[in-house]
Design goal:
5-stranded mixed β-sheet, alpha+beta, 35 helices, 43% helix
Length: 882
Amino acid sequence: MTSMSWMKTMRITSSVIWNLCLLFVVLSVVGFVFVGSIGAGYFASLVKEEPLRAKAEMRSDILTYDETSDLYFAGGKYLGKMRSDLERRETTLDKVSPNVINAVLATEDEYFYEHNGIVPKAVFRGLLQDVTNSATQTGGSTLTQQLIKNQILTNEVSYERKAKELLLAMRLESFMEKDEILEAYLNIIPYGRNSSGRNIAGIETAAEGIFNKKANDLNLAQAAYIAGIPQSPYAYTPFTQQGKLKDKESLAHGINRMKTVLYRMHESGYITDKQYKKALKYKIKKDFRKSELRPEEKYPYVTYEIESRAKDIMATILAKKDGIDPKRLKNEKKLKEKYTILADRELRSKGYKIYSTIDKKMYDNMQNVKDNFAYYGATFKKTVTDSETGKSKQVDVPVQVGSIVMENKTGKILSFIGGRDFKLEELNHATQAKRSNGSTMKPLLVYAPAIEYGVIGAGSPVVDVKFNHLGWSPSNISGDTRGIISAREALKDSQNLTAIRLYSQIMNRRPADLLAKNGFSHLDADDYTNYATSIGALKYGVTVEENTNAFATFANGGKFVDGYMISKIVDSDGKTVYKHKSKAKQVYSPQTSYIITDMMRDVLKQGTGTTANAGLKFSADFAAKTGTSQDYKDVWVVGYNPDISLGVWMGYDTPQTLYQYNETYLQPGTRVNMLWAKLMNSVYDSNPKLATASGKRFTPPAGVVSQTFCGLSGRALSSACSKAGFSRTDLFNSQVMLPTSPDDSFNSSGGLNPDFISRMLGVLGGDPTGILSSKEKEKLNPTNTDEKDKDTEKDKNKDKDTQPNNNSSNSNTNSDTNSNSNTDKDKNKDKNAKPNTDNKKPTTDKDNSTEQDKDNSTEQDKDKNPNTDKDKDKNTGTSNNN
């Protein structure tokens, strides 16, 4: 009984247990289904607004990522990355070391080749850790999920974003091969900073930026270090924001992470015990790339200028794609702004290669000259407000410099100097700063057009006599006048009065149109009608690039070829989207160009550029013109040979006189002459063939003839003119002018013809008695011994004061040598520095103070000019001389 009772009890108990188990299972299944339904419903609610993405759309989103554009010097020499918030360079999987791939898989996704985009176990583990607020967060994202997060979604921390990530990851796996996903991941993932302090992404960029290696060449330890960075990019990167190597304590975080990656590689079977132990002992610190300056730090002016010009080109390309006439960009400000922004985004994110014309060696040599030149002038101080702190601080105000070298026939800009110090002033003084070009305007606007129009030849007479036009009375640099002199002499010595008078004869033909054809881009309507424009008084000024480009027109046989700095732009697929094509536009005739070039040869040989010529360490066929604006606010030298042109400007950013502390720094004109020579010597050191033009010389084209004529009238030589000693021979363009008209200079009694005098003085008039110099008057009155004695006495007095005589029209003496003696005006300008007293400073026996060193017209002269806008001086410091 007892046994049967026990068995009965067991049966009942087991039945109850079984039923309870069945009930538990049923309840569990029901609960699971219920919870699952709730979870599924919640999941569905989280992704309900996520659109069903097509295959093409998803592939495009994943495979389209920003890639930084590259900048190059001429000849394909690498300059650096275009400025960007993030640097990235694309690569392919076959160009990545197996060490990197194994390290990434072992660390980030060991089941990558097995799952379908997600690992459920990892998802639930992550969810549980999140719900329980666990201190340990192991993460559960596959490479596919990380790719979705970076390329399609955001880094937002939310269940909605996570749900979409899971859904899209599974969908992506059906659209892309595993290797495609892995390659995309390696190209987009962030890797901290490089040795310049720039943010970087992509395995190729990381390999180069951290170890200066290709991704395919990374060893095991290096691969492990990089593979460990993405978990916490800025904690594990070895570099600071400034590109400096972190201290030992901070570096330890990245090195420890590298050891963790090596451990996982070992545990996963990717490396052997021997490889593991060897890699753990590897001294990774020695492999870190040395800190480097960014391109915009090492070559700031080049970087910014290339970027700016590339944006202009790309804006035009994008506008054309949209069916918009690119000419509208020049006239419609808002449209220009829109496409400039689009162009900037395009260039900074699409991996273009931008090739420039800048010769690195020449550029470096020119910067070296700039940095070591000792005669710029005084550096002052000014007080400014610090934009960050709001406090006042003192900053330097140095003499600035701008210079440019151009290839005449192509317009290629070979090199330039943007300024003294980019950190002090970012304005590019070669390509952006607009200044008065002083007397470098004279050949461009006066003498060359007059030759072109058939008004003069090289030796034709021009009048150096003072005048008063509606209260405006300009003067020459020395204050004296020479009467009738040759155009060649007037240009050589940069006489103001002759230039203004000659310009008055041709202004009605609008020679300023030739400036526009030569690339002067900021001409004002007043510049076409203002007499002072002939000596550089532009309302807004001109850049060094534009001025030099215009002189290159003379060197190029009268053909203007616009300067350029971008040779081509290539997209990330290797397709050339832009290639520069030089176009020549005839501005002056070849005959005019040769004649004006021959006249400007004399500037260097015996005129205002002799210091520049004396400073050259090689020989070449050069022509040049110097220039100084009012009160020495700007000084220039622009010169050229058959192959290249070099322009140099100096001045303060806020225009003020350079005529200070001359005892220390020499005369302003001497300074710029010296700098031009030194820069041209640096060009010679970089490329002797260009500097010497390979020995080529300017040769006269057909139509340029040498003819003898009357030097007084500029007409055919008469017996009276010959007898009086005024016979002259010089160059003419036979196609537009020959001195064949009868000479009208003498009347029947042998004196000067009043009609001739009136013709020569022209519309501006002037004192008729000043039409001839004293020596020329002597020629007409050889028996007048009293006059002879007076002249002799004058010469003796001048000899006592060691002042050379330059009254002769054939004198080779630089007018500045006369004008820069210690006059009262000079003393008032610079009580502490008398011109040319420092015998220790480099000079030549010909030119210790060049013609640029004194203004031919005073500030008062300019202001009295009825044709001059008073605002001009505010804009450019205009009114000029040499």
